[in-house]
Design goal:
- The chain is α+β, with helices and mostly antiparallel strands.
- The protein has two domains: 8-108, Phosphorylase Kinase, domain 1 (2-Layer Sandwich); 113-322, Alpha-Beta Complex (Aminoglycoside 3'-phosphotransferase, Chain: A, domain 2), CATH 3.90.1200.10.
- The protein contains ten helices and eleven strands.
- The chain has a six-stranded antiparallel sheet with strand order 1-2-3-4-6-5, sandwiched between helices.
- Helix 5 packs antiparallel against helix 6 (175-193) and helix 6 packs parallel to helix 10.
- The radius of gyration is 21 Å and the shape is globular.
Length: 327
């Protein structure tokens, strides 16, 4: 499968580029790349592909991020994944440049994007996550990870609601858009009033390492001698919690087969219930992510969050119903 076109390609002054300088901090003898591809540029992180700069001239992925997020990913790559019998990306190191930026160095996953619509992909992912979750639960480094259980997502709910409430005063919003915001706030109120039922749905399931954003853009499948290898990336949302958020886009039967020996108490009904709760967790995170955008003083900049919130309003209502929390 072809690699997506990069957003930007740099071909001059490459040795002076911050990504190359960071790489050479930990690997002084590394060769200069043939080119630098900007794979992804976001508010808090940027991903570069250094063509020809990796071991044996391979492409190298360099991720620039905030130090806290970088240290979290470093813990996963250095202290947890090597001790769990799952496939993972080759990790080449971490640098904190002291200037508010951290750098992670990884092999280029290449391969095929994960597709939750493909049953074979869902089966592979279910087995992979089942092994990860059961094996990582007992590792000491896992216990030091940030909370990603129900209290964390309750915090995301409250933060999103507070920010959306502030956004109601934006004079650039129309009546229908105000209605969507009020509906999402009401949904948050309802969910918080029933949060004890969310906690009950998670009870009895061990806390473990969760990826927290296991979806197509963050997972690759690469052909190998033993079959396709599942290669998740972007662990910046990882943490310690019940694995609800990781179960929303996989095959629960394959997952159950992988966990039943170590977690015999986690049956099929429990997994389906966890997946329902996981969809709500991810919805809350997505709403919290876009809620600050309603403070924009430009109608053009408001169009994207308006569109997204309309979808979140409808999906949150469906997910509350599916989880038995709507009434």
């Amino acid at each position: 499968m072809s690699v997506p076109e990069p957003a930007e390609v740099l071909r001059s002054d490459l040795a002076a580029h911050p990504a190359v300088r960071a790489w050479r901090t930990s690997h002084p003898c590394a060769r200069c790349p043939d080119s630098i591809q900007v794979v992804k540029r976001e508010e808090k992180s940027t991903v570069y592909r250094l063509v020809g700069a990796g071991p044996a001239g391979s492409p190298l992925i360099v991720k620039r991020c905030l130090p806290e997020a970088g240290r979290l990913e470093r813990t996963v790559y250095e202290e947890i994944l090597p001790r769990v019998p799952v496939t993972s990306l080759q990790y080449y190191g971490f640098v904190d440049d002291g200037g508010g930026r951290a750098w992670l160095f990884l092999e280029d996953a290449g391969g095929e994007k994960y597709s939750p619509e493909d049953p074979s992909h869902r089966t592979l992912a279910g087995r992979w996550l089942g092994v990860l979750h059961t094996c990582a639960a007992h590792l000491a480094p896992t216990a030091s990870l940030p909370d990603r259980g129900p209290p964390y997502y309750l915090g995301r709910l409250r933060a999103a609601r507070a920010t959306l409430t502030s956004g109601l005063g934006n004079p650039l919003l129309g009546a229908a858009e105000i209605g969507d915001i009020r509906a999402v706030i009401a949904g948050c109120d309802l969910l918080e009033s029933r949060w004890s039922r969310v906690e009950e749905a998670c009870a009895g399931v061990p806390a473990t390492l969760v990826h927290g954003d296991f979806r197509n853009k963050n997972v690759r499948l690469r052909a190998g001698p033993s079959g396709p290898a599942v290669l998740p990336m972007d662990w910046e949302h990882a943490g310690l919690g019940v694995p609800a958020a990781d179960l929303t886009r996989i095959d629960p039967i394959a997952y159950r087969s992988a966990v039943q020996e170590r977690w015999p108490q986690v049956g099929s009904a429990t997994l389906l219930r966890l997946a329902d709760v996981g969809r709500i967790f991810l919805r809350l995170a997505a709403i919290d992510w876009i809620s600050p955008w309603f403070g924009y003083d430009s109608r053009v900049l408001l169009l994207k969050p308006i569109e997204h919130l309309a979808v979140h309003r409808a999906q949150l209502a469906l997910e509350l119903e599916a989880a038995g929390l709507a009434r």
